[in-house]
Amino acid sequence: MFKSSKIFYNRLVCVDLVSNVKRRVSVKSHRCDVRSFEEIPGPRSYPIIGTLHKYAPFIGDYDVETLDKNAWLNYRRYGSLVRETPGVRVLHVYDPDDIETVFRQDHRFPARRSHIAMYHYRMKKPDVYNTGGLLSTNGQEWWRLRSTFQKNFTSPKSVKSHVESTDTVIREFINWIKETNISHNQDFLPFLNRLNLEVIGIVAFNERFQSFSPDEQGPSSRSSKTIDAAFGSNCGIMKLDKGFMWKIFQTPVYKRLADSQTYLEKVSTDILYNRIHYFKEPDDDDISLLGSFLKQPNLDLKDIIGMMVDILMAAIDTTAYTTSFALYHIGRNPEVQQKMFEEISTLLPTKDSKITPDTLAKATYVRACIKESLRLNPVSVGIGRLTQKEFVLRGYLIPEGTVIVTQNFVASRMPQYVKDPLIFKPERWIRDSEGYENIHPFLSLPFGFGPRSCIARRLAEQNIGIFLMRLIREFNVTWMGEDLGIKTLLINKPDKPVSLSLTSRFL
């Protein structure tokens, strides 16, 4: 009698779980197969501090600025699903099939837990901002911004309209390199930061920062301070996301974020108000993003200011770092560079040949080089999501409110997913080539996925493509530095100087 009652009770428990969490549960040997989140392997968690001790100086073996190494350690210790609780519930996901499952759960308005301190800062300034901006806002307000702004960023016609102005700026930069006689002893990254400020200035705002002029080379110039403010806005985001003391008093990291945001606001406001002052009516000849924003009746000036600050934050460092890694791989693989040059010299018979949207469309090998570089060195270690419903992943119940981090950087370097994963082989992306691989579509996601993917992806790829075509057409590039790793400051920054030897081509 007692044994029968116990069996009946176990079955009732399973039925109750089904009704409470609305998931499918199988009953085997009188128990439920779905396991709790706490049963997922991961580092030991303590009351209050969770797993924050792993990141503590001296006693912890994780570093917030080397998330790639942390992720690799986690994978080796715990497997393809890893649980952490550094103040919040976190799940690291490595297998591309599991990554796909995660993204298939996306809500209509995918959410992230990111840029929390920036959101806090902006919401305290209602005279400047309506929202926290695209990077930190969630829900319907995020979708209002995204759906309003994205057509200006993503439509092919809009993106192609910026090819000529981008090429003009890049050709000026190439000439500046030749006149300045850049040495491999100089870090090339600061030059790329200035270049990308100039490109985004003309594309986004129809504004020239003149960042390569003698007057703008000093640390107190507008261009230098804008580049520093963009970095200052980005570099502390992850530390602030993990911390809480900045909510009590203004920590040095939070102060740098706030000061940087304030300066970017000033630059954006000056540009915007000058445009409004000089043009009472929208200028039909202005094809910049700002020009298109001003023609939209459902945007007010505070929305536009927020977007301008987000553009300056997101466009300078990310594109410069991505280009640096591409040059690193190209400069270390002369056979790849030769194939690039052969394709480029066919499309650009002379150094003065014009680059058009059609030229870029035919640059198949150049685009493959960019994709391969982004596989090995994506913009970030992975993609974040904040779950808005519970679901089952590999037999574990993932609760609502879990922060999921897809570990694409590490997964893209694993031999079970890519052949010879550490070799730079652009052919693996070119269909009908001998080296083509059918890579899992959720393995390499450098620009994110779905409606929350990078809004400026097409512009970024176009800008990098034009730059590589011009540089390789003009110079033979040789990497002169050490092996290049990453420093994870929200976005992946080169951890050593970008040391390049540029030798002029005479063809």
Automatic annotation (TrEMBL):
Keyword field: Heme, Iron, Metal-binding, Monooxygenase, Oxidoreductase
Binding locations of heme: 454
PROSITE patterns cross-referenced by the UniProt entry: CYTOCHROME_P450 (PS00086)
Gene Ontology MF annotations: heme binding; iron ion binding; monooxygenase activity; oxidoreductase activity, acting on paired donors, with incorporation or reduction of molecular oxygen
Transmembrane segments: none
InterPro entries on file: CYP11_CYP27_families, Cyt_P450, Cyt_P450_CS, Cyt_P450_E_grp-I, Cyt_P450_sf
The organism's place on the tree of life at top rank: Eukaryota
Cofactor: heme
Amino-acid biosynthesis found in the keyword field: no
Pfam families, sorted: p450 (PF00067)
Zinc-finger as UniProt keyword: no
Family designation: Belongs to the cytochrome P450 family.
Name of the protein: Cytochrome p450 CYP302A1
Organism annotation: Spodoptera exigua
